[in-house]
Amino acid sequence: MEKFTDYSHKNQYRLIKAQLPAGKRNDCNLLPVVYLMAGNEEFRNKVTHFINWNEGEIDWSNLLNSNDDIEELTILIKLSAELYSHKQMISIYDLINKLDKNNFSMVLMLLQNIKEGFHFNTYEIDNLDSYIQKGCL
Prior knowledge:
Elements: H1 7-19, H2 31-39, H3 41-48, E1 51-52, E2 57-58, H4 60-65, H5 71-85, H6 92-98, H7 101-115, E3 118-119, E4 133-134
Antiparallel strand pairs: 1-2, 3-4
């Protein structure tokens, strides 16, 4: 499970990715968001309300402006927007000091996958270890 926190994370990633239109399943900007959704149920529940599943588009403006009292959730939303748009929205300080251990570990794993040149471009139901492969970024 070196690319995911555990099997449940990997399986959720597969299930969420399958809901995207075929043309968006390899979107290198969108798939880190899917990765975070797969790893955090509260984040997934929040972001799901702002996704147009038919188009595979996220309503970032409304998502970022939605009021949320949970600081960790706000940090994950800003991080996902930053990874999607490549515009700085979150500080390293917030990641280190405001995420719990599980979310911090998941974020580090995602960043390591991105840094190593991995992206999420393969969708095969029968081979769960193939979802992250070298290529993008």
